[in-house]
Amino acid sequence: MAESNKYAILRPLFTDQSHYAKAFKYCMSVADNLEAIQKWTNESFCEHVVEKLVADIGEGTDDKLLRVLGVGSGSGEIELLFLDKLLIKFPHIHSCVVEPCADLLEKYQAKVEENAMGITYDWQMYKLEDFVANQQENSQKYHFISAISSMYYVKDLNQALRSLHDMLAPGGILLVTIAADSTGYGKLWRTFPYLGSETSSQDESPESAAASSHHRDSGHVHDALRQLQIPYYIDDEYAFQTKITQCFDAKQSEEGDLMLDFLTHTIRFREAPKDLYQQVLACIKESCVQNGGDWFFQSKSVCFFITKL
Known about the structure:
Helix 1 (17-29) packs across helix 10 (254-264) and helix 6 (157-166) crosses helix 9. Strands 2, 3, 4, 5, 6, 7, 9 and 10 form an eight-stranded mixed sheet that branches. The chain has a single domain (3-241, 301-307), classed as Vaccinia Virus protein VP39 (Rossmann fold, 3-Layer(aba) Sandwich), CATH 3.40.50. The protein is of the alpha/beta class. The longest helix is centred in the N-terminal third of the chain and has 25 residues, at 33-57. 41% of the residues are buried. It has eleven helices and ten strands. The termini are far apart.
C-alpha cells in the first residue's frame, strides 16, 4: 500500500472554515506567538518597515495617505500592532483587509469599531487568488503589504508572491512570515507532507503532496523568490511556543483534539490510523520541551522583506 493511502480518510482542515476558525482560536489562546511578534514588532518592525518607508517614499507620502494591504489578516491582532507603529509616522492610513473566513473577519471588524483613529478600512472577504482576480488593470498600489502566516493557503506560491510584488508601489515593502523549515511546524510538515493534502493519490509524490497541502515553509519561499528573481532580505527569526499538554493526555478532550487538528491541519486527526497517529505524536514531541509537567511545542517564523524599486 502506498504511503499516501494512510491519509485517505483524513480531511484537510481548510475544507471546514468553521472548524478551522475554532482550532485556530484555541491554538492562539495557548501560544505565545502574539507576545513574540509584539516583541519583534517593537525591536525590528520600526527599523525594517517604518523607517525604511519614511526614507524611500517620504513621511506622509505624496497624497498624505499610506496605503496598506493585509493578506489573510485573521482577526487582526498582528496587523493592528503594525498599524499602531505606522501611525506614528503616517497619521493617515487606508487599510485593505483580505480575509476569507467570515468569523475571523467579523472579529477584526469588532476590534476596530471604536478605535480606528486615523485609519479607514476596506473589508474584502476573499481568498487572495479571488481578490487578485477581481482587481482591474492598473489597480491600486500599496506602500506596505503584510502576509503573516498566509502563504500556506494559496494554491500557487510563485503566482501569489508575484501578484503581491506587482501590487507594491515604488518604494513599498512586502512582509511575508512563514514557519522555519527546520523547527516546529516546518519539521513536522516536512516529515509528513501528506497531512492536510487535498489529494492522497498513491501516485502522488511527497513534493506534490506538500504543494497541494498547506505545508509550506521558509525553504519554499526562498525557492519561489529566487525563481521569480525578486530581491528580498531576511530579518532574524522569531521563536514562539504553544502549550500542547492535552495532545498527550490519555483522556481525550476537545481542547486536545483542536490542537492536534491545527498542528496537523487535519480534521479529527485522532481518527487517523493508529500507526500514523503514533508516528505524528512522536514527531511533535521531538519539538517540545517539558516544564512543570506541561509540554510546549517550539517553533520559529522567518520574516522575508520584499521591496519594490
